[in-house]
Give the backbone structure.
Amino acid sequence: MQTADVKVKAIVTRAVPYNESDMIVTLVGVDTGVLTATAKGCLKPKAKLRYAAEPMNFGDYVLSGRNGRYVVTECSQIESFSSITYDIEKYYAASMILETLQRGSKDANPDLFILSLKALDALAYSECDSDDVSRDFLLGFLDISGNKLDFQHCNVCKYDIEGNAYFKDSDGIVCEHCKGLDGILVDNLSRGYLAKQTDISHPLKVKANLLLADFVYMTTGVRISTHYFTEQL
């Protein structure tokens, strides 16, 4: 059976060494979802396609193969986002974004793809705080998944929330009076930060974003467990 070329606009979400000089790369394509391919010889000192196997690389890839077994034959780089690697907090945030993109793209998910690109761009080129970018990304993922959360108003009684809030599978964010017996606490500091009303310290931002990641898992089934959380809490 003949091989066929597949052209895909994709982001590298993961790269693992294979044999002496190859890499197995996980790509998420805007129109394809997750693909796996081998980048042959890319670990050699003068490899021309080394950049094509770098996590965060965004480019137009040409893959050769069939039945899900592909080799990277060409890549026209659009953006590397390489400046992120010089800041450990930005790098941790990017790793969370890449993991979420990969796990949320078993099928093509153009909205998540674009959301991820915008978040990586903000980390690389804006003065935005990396925790704030992470928060906005997770809130955006909930939104495009049909699970938008409003941390300013109770989703049951519609009143403003001024203290602690609570998360319920059936109702989203609710107030003290509407929490029932199964509401998950969102303390006032975390709630204010997630509502974009207040600023808090870095450790508290990570804690608040961990709550968001838990809500992502509860509503979408996408579990996020990266260095952004494990190395910063």
Q: What stands out?
A: The beta strands are 4-18, 22-29, 33-39, 58-66, 69-79, 165-168, 172-174, 184-186.
